[in-house]
Every structure is written in C-alpha cells, then in structure tokens.
Amino acid sequence: MQNMTISPAKGNRKFLKKLKERNIDVQTCYQCGRCSAGCPIADFFDLQPMEVVRLAGYGMEEKLLASETIWLCASCDTCATRCPNSIDITGLMDVMRELALRKGIKPAVPQVPAFHLSFMESVKRWGRTYEIGMIGAYKLRSGDYMGDMKLGLSMFMKGKLSLVPHSIEGKPEIRDIFAGKGKEYER
C-alpha cells in the first residue's frame, strides 16, 4: 500500500460544503474513537468509522468512494449514538453510497448496492419496506435467484413475510423527502 499525505488543503471543499448542507458536521470530530470501538462490524471494514469521519473532514471524497466500509456499514447507528459530538456518521455513510452510485463508481462490494437500491426503492414506493417486493427486486439485480429460497420459504410459512404491502399514512410526504434529497445534494 502506498503512503499518502492527507491534509485539509488537498481536500475537496465542495464535498465538505455538501456534507454541511446535509447537517453532517465532520469538523467537530476530535478522534476519540468511540464510534469505531462500538461498531459491531468494524472488524470487516477497510476504514474504521473514525477514519471515515477524518477523511471526510479532510475532503478526501475519492478515497472514501473507493472504500468497502461505505458499503458494509449496517446503518445500525451505534457509532452516531456513541459520538460525544453527535456526528451523523450513519448519514455520512448514506451520502457516500448515494454519491458513489450517482458518479457510477463501481462498488467495492458488488452485492450491497443491489440491496441498497432495492431497499430504497421499496421505501420510496411503499413508505416502508415491502419485504417480498424488495427481495424480488434484489434477487433480480444480484442474479442470485435461489440463494435464500429455503430461508425465505420458512419465513413466509411463519407469517414473517406478507404478500401484500402494509399501508401507511404519509406516502406522499415520503416521496417528497426522496425528491428533495436528490435535489439538495446536486445543488
């Protein structure tokens, strides 16, 4: 691995501005490490959560977009909960995934974007996840048609998966959130 010097002067200030517009202030991080220490899957990351925050603070957008971490993050919010400065690390990971998809960057973990897109489309359309529809969309995207068939059938038989999506209030507002989110980031 090649050593590289990282400094705010070499970073992308436009990227930092976009994060601030999304209420993600990475500049308040003082690298205490609580986010990384609490992350249940940090052992599988190529960059620890505190490294992601530091690189974002330095505007190192390209390095973050090439990382496996942004795709492997489970968005459990443990990191953000433990952060003494309330940095939205989960939101930062979401922004990085969306940015990578928009820029057409090949994901470091190919199956995750297929799941991410399927999940987001389900929430956008139904206001929450419609599991059967989301699973179907994911299977079509990933090409793994039979991989979890036994598990899926077992869950269906136990009533864990519904054939009909659950109705919720506020679907138009959720669609507005998705529409606004895209416009906000492209500003």
UniProtKB/TrEMBL annotation:
May I ask which residue range the UniProt record assigns to the signal sequence? none
Q: Which UniProt keywords apply?
A: 4Fe-4S, Iron, Iron-sulfur, Metal-binding, Oxidoreductase
Single annotated GO MF: 4 iron, 4 sulfur cluster binding
**One Gene Ontology cellular component annotation?**
plasma membrane
Q: Does the keyword Metal-binding apply?
A: yes
Which domain of life does this protein belong to?
Answer: Bacteria
**InterPro entries to which the protein is assigned, alphabetical:** 4Fe4S_Fe-S-bd (IPR017896), 4Fe4S_Fe_S_CS (IPR017900), HdrC_iron-sulfur_subunit (IPR051460), Helical_ferredxn (IPR009051)
What are the 4Fe-4S ferredoxin-type domain coordinates in residue numbering? 20-50
Give yes or no: UniProt keyword Nucleotide-binding.
Answer: no
What is the protein name stated in its UniProt record?
Answer: Heterodisulfide reductase subunit C
